[in-house]
Every structure is written in C-alpha cells, then in structure tokens.
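Handoff note, outgoing to incoming analyst
You'll be picking up this chain. Sequence as last confirmed:
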Amino acid sequence: MKTRLSFLLSLVAISAIAQKKQFDITGAVRKFEGSLSAMYTHSWQLGKKKKFEIGLAGRFTSYLGQNQYYITAPARLTSGSTGPLVIFKENIAANIDTFLIQSPQVNAINVVIHLGYQITNRFAVGFNIDAIGISIGSKKTGSYINGVFGQQEQGKPTAFNLLLISDNDLGTLNSELFVKYKWKEKWGFKGGLQFLFTEYTTDTQVQQVPEPNNRFRDKSLLFAFGVYKNLN
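Most recent structure output, in case you need it:
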C-alpha cells in the first residue's frame, strides 16, 4: 500500500512540473555538405522561476555531402584507448586510413537528450545531443585510401547509433548548440552550430593495419538555422 501511494505521489509531483512541447525544423550547411532535421521535444521546466529545461526528444536527420573523407572510426585505433579520457587523446596518424565517398547520404532517427535555459521572455539557449537510434541509407561505392595506395570498396551507413564518449560513439549522431528567439506566442527562430557524426561500414574489413576495421566516420561542424513551434 505504501509503495503504491509513493508511486502515485511521484506521478502527481512530476505532472505538477511545468512542461513544454515543441517541434522544430533545422537546416545546417557548410561547404560541400549539409543536413536537414526535424525534432519533437518534450521538456520539463525546473527551478523557482522555471528557467531551466531538461527533456527528451525524437529527431530525424538527413545528411548529404560531396567528396567527403571518412576516416577510421574506432577509438581503439584512432587514439589507442577506449577509456573515459579518450576525448583528450590525440589521434595516432599511422592508424588512420580514409574512405572517400563522392556523395554520402545518411538518414538517422534518434532519441535526443535536451538541455535549455530561458534567459528572457524571448531569448533562450540550449544544447541537445542524440543518444541512441538507427540509421539507414543506400550502399555507396567509395575509394579506400591507405597512404599512396587505394582501392574501390562498398559501404552502407552504420545501422546502430549509440552515444558513448568521443570516438567510442557508434553510428550517426547529431548535436546542436543554439540560441532561440521567440517571434510570436507559438513561433520562433533558432540558430547556432551543429556537430554531426556520420558513419559508414564497409562490406569487408578493408583496413588491416594495425588491426582489421570496417568502420569509417566523418565529423562535420555546420552552421544551423531553423524555426520552431510551441505545441502547448
């Protein structure tokens, strides 16, 4: 009985917290590459003045590029480490090979972690990052490059996406650092930076040194602009 009562009280407490539902569409570009994403966010406003936000979202991201160089992806190869400090490690150039794709195209659907802060009634800042999901896309033929040697190879977007730490990440993951401006009661604009990982898995473990590998990643820093609508 006490357990049920505690559970009901917890539900009441959660429902009493101010909530926000929002939908946004964002485009992001840089020379020879870009992305388009759509996201639905459900967040909870915390603090005495309800300025802090934490929430979950679902995001669809579609990426398109031209002549993009995908490099060796696994952290154990790029930095020789997989621990939590891998983010501070320098890349080991001798371990990194390249998979050049003329027209990469990746579509990803991910669960997103959202954080935000309301500066004024009209301005807010925030950060979001994909946590887990799937990617789809057609098979592409690219050029595997190892030093001065190269060969043709085929690959598809890595199917499973998972946020870990730096090069430990798997698949295609999108993140944004942004500023929002409320234009009208329901509508507003957003702008900022988008950091997007896209990843391909080749049909064979084409890289053999220092160990067999078939995962290659591109890291894109894009300028982002979008519109959003408040749904409540």
